[in-house]
Amino acid sequence: MWDALVGFLASIIDMFFRLTGNFGVAVILFTILVKGILLPLDIKSKKSTAKIQEIQPQINLINEKYANDPEKKSKKMQEVYAANHINPLGGCLPMLLTMPVIIIIFAALRSIAADHMYLYLETLIIDNNASMKEIMESIVVAVEGSADLKMSFRDILPQIFNNSGELTSAIEKLPEVIGEESWVALQTAIKGVSYEQAQASAQEMGYSFLWIKNVWAPDSPLKSILGTSFKLKDLFGSNAGQYWALCNGFFVLPIISTVSQYLHTHLMEKKTKKAQAEATAKMKKKPSENAQDPQNTMKVMNKIFPLMSLYFCATYNGAFAIYWTISNFVSIAQMFITDYIVNKKKSVQE
Predict the structure, then answer these.
(1) What is the three-class DSSP state of 288?
(2) pTM of the predicted model, to two decimals?
């Protein structure tokens, strides 16, 4: 089931790639498609949230008045919800339905990136030495049939590139599994891959996007186009120019995604405060400033989400960073669109 779902999402991205010839653009179109499909749920969630914001001052007043009587407080809250025809979970349920979709896309993009990175590295090896095609096929068969290795060769090959032929503990038995001759041939072929060849192949395969040399590796100066790691000191040492020329990206998308995430959450918080202030102004008796305010939790989350955005986009592949960043901007646009629709209907009703 999972493989079928990942395959379905990959086929959509591949379809957009065939139309555009670039996987970066394909991911952008894929993101817009996903956000468009989720738009009705987003509008429904925003409508429910707007209604809850209107009565929030009343809820705060009840929390303050019946702070020592939980049973009566719950009863009064239910009366307020019923009088205003509001489902207290109405704003959360549509959002909860979108969460599995986001998790699936997150995991799927990781799997798709792993597939493409393997295809990319395999292509580099075979293009550099045509005789490696049969050897690579035999290595795949040997690894898949081994009980000693718990990983597929798809996941092993990037590790070999990243460790310059040295083996991690997880794959230390690889030479024994594939045979010493195949292991030596593989090491020799990897060492023969040049960055010039890697960059040319990435462009030919549609993996490069703007400043990112390979969208299946992180947009980071600490990663090369092959996904191999650089040390921070390398970027500021005597050969800094060489490393900066070889890095896969410049940390641009992680920064843009963090700023756009902050902008989105800030606008949401500002809108919520405005709605609650308007609702409070209409009340005869107003809650005190010390009344329980659920927006305090939102303020904390508004600080956490941008940091999460920075971490994910800095450590995962560029394709995911593109998805996350574009998703933020589309969410901001959708917020203005849904606000316009909700306010227009509200003015007609009044």
Answers:
(1) coil
(2) 0.81
CA distance 308 to 248: 22
Q: What angle do CA 183, 184, 190 make, to 5 degrees?
A: 90
318-349 and 23-65 helices cross at what angle (nearest 10)? 50
End-to-end CA distance of the chain: 49
Q: Give the length of the chain.
A: 350
Specify the 3-state DSSP secondary structure of 16: helix
Give the distance, in angstroms, between the CA of residue 262 and the centroid of all CA atoms in the same chain: 15
Angle of helix 2-20 relative to helix 23-65, nearest 10 degrees, comes to 120
Q: What is the pLDDT of residues 108-158, one digit of tens each?
A: 888 888 899 999 999 999 998 889 999 999 999 999 888 888 888 998 998
Identity of residue 304: I
CA distance 26 to 133: 29
Rounded Cα–Cα distance for residues 39 and 28 (Å): 16
**Using CA atoms, how far apart are residues 210 and 8, in angstroms rounded to an integer?**
27
Angle made by CA atoms 143, 145, 147, in degrees to the nearest 5: 90
Burial (Cβ within 10 Å: 0-12, 13-18, ≥19) of residue 36: exposed
For residues 82 and 79, give the distance between their C-alpha atoms in angstroms, rounded to a whole number.
5
Residue type, 60: N
Q: Which residues pair with 296 in a beta bridge?
A: none
pLDDT in tens, 286-329: 555 544 455 555 667 777 889 988 998 998 899 999 999 999 99
In order, the DSSP letters of 169-232 are GGGTTHHHHH-HHHHHHHHHHHHT--HHHHHHHHHHTT--BTTBS-TTS-SSTTBBTTS-B--G
Spatial distance between the Cα atoms of 118 and 155, rounded to a whole number of angstroms: 8
Would you say 170 and 150 are in contact if contact means Cβ atoms under 8 Å apart?
yes
From the list 249, 204, 220, 228, the residue with the least C-alpha distance to 23 is: 204
Going by the DSSP 8-state scheme, the letter that residue 1 receives in this structure is: -
C-alpha distances in angstroms, 33 versus 15, 107, 137, 154, 330?
Answer: 12, 18, 37, 29, 11
